[in-house]
Amino acid sequence: MRLTKIVATLGPASLSFDGIQSLVAAGVSVFRLNCSHLSTQDLPKAISLVREAAPHTGIMVDIQGPKLRFAPMSLDLETGSNVSFKLSDLGIESSQGDGSRGLAIGHRILMDDGRIETVVEDITGNEFSLRVVRGGYLQQGKGVNLPDTEVRGSVLSQKDLDDLTVARDLGVEIVAVSFVQTPNDVISIRELVGEDIMVFAKIERPQALARIDEICAVSDGVMAARGDLGVETPYESVPDAQSRIALSALRQGVVSICATEMLESMTTSSRPTRAEVADVSGAVRDGFDAVMLSGETAVGLNPSEAVRAMARICQESEKHVSMPNYFADENPGAAAVTAAASALAKRTSAKFILSISLSGFSARLMASCRPSCPIVAITPSDDRSRQLNVNRGVYPLVLERDRNFTSAVTSAIKLTKDIGMLQSGDEIVVCASRLHPRSDADTILLHREP
Prior knowledge:
By secondary structure, the chain is an alpha/beta fold. It has helices at about 15-25, 45-55, 160-170, 185-195, 205-210, 210-220, 225-230, 240-250, 275-285, 295-300, 305-320, 325-330, 335-350, 360-370, 380-385, 405-420, and strands at about 5-10, 30-35, 60, 70, 75, 80-85, 110, 115-125, 125-135, 135-140, 145, 175, 200-205, 220-225, 255-260, 290-295, 355, 375-380, 395-400, 425-430, 445-450. It has 3 domains: about 5-65 and about 155-320, Phosphoenolpyruvate-binding domains (TIM Barrel); about 70-145, PK beta-barrel domain-like (M1 Pyruvate Kinase, Domain 3, Beta Barrel), CATH 2.40.33; about 325-450, 3-Layer(aba) Sandwich (Pyruvate Kinase, Chain: A, domain 1), CATH 3.40.1380.20. It is elongated, with a radius of gyration of 23 Å. GO terms for molecular function: ATP binding; kinase activity; magnesium ion binding; potassium ion binding; pyruvate kinase activity.
């Protein structure tokens, strides 16, 4: 039972009933719907298709956010030259009364994934002049990044708002927020989608990285979105930033996902490069809950094989990883019972930990303690069960909770035995609430199957 979860992006190569089912069989736990490549009109159909083909997997709706793109015609920018543009030429809208939206003299503007670098020398109204530090041929539609600018105003476009409404109304498990800068960006999304949907902050700007602890504190999860992060920060600093994101999430007990170009060569190749294998292994060693595939499964040559390769790398890497319990060290009270259960499971070499919880909260706490074995989470809710799919090592099962503690434990153990998870001679740790079904876990049992 692999601990690290796999998130797969759906696209033309995989967004079909058979394609989705083949990805689940290969090892996908959560499907990502990228709103940068899906219209608001097509989003409900995609969600319904995933629900039909894979009713037990989670769905993440990744909203587009304020992606800036160069709008005028293509042109050649010569190093050392000066050029003038309007804010709207770079996709920067000033209609909200924010003027330059935070852009100031001396700020860098990067274009075409950082290949072209310019610096703002003057701003007059909605027009500004740039000095070209590193030139090149700039094609229309290429991306624009503002690494030094904390963009003022809302990070949400009208399309984002419409996509969030669809995600909320159709009850997806996760929404991922692009270009987060401050904790308030996450809070504003939560006010829109409600408390039942998990809100993940994509860390892809230096402003977010500088506030990673504060952002984790208000988020259900964070994503190391290394694409734009590698443009807006020096690319050599990305591995350290990735580790910082994972460590902050571990300490605060929120989910973490490592994303972007993890097996990029498998978009066109049948096997990953050795560097990609090392990259995925590094993410496992950093302690991420999940690793994500993007183009590999959305438009790749063989999406299922990319997932199988990812699964094999994760499983092999996990053999050599023993995670410290950062969460319990930072939160000794909240983790008192789950940390003890995790420690007991390690000492006894338990096959798995059986967590019985109405909301899944105890199972998430358990996952935050990074036990060395899987967690089988018993919850009566399909919605809560699907949300748990993104947590490291958690394998959710749906079963109505008996109010009687002994009956609840007996039924849960029987279910794991009936489906082949528990066999004669296996030893497991059971963690549940004896006081009341809705209380936090307060009891630990060691069970050996006769």
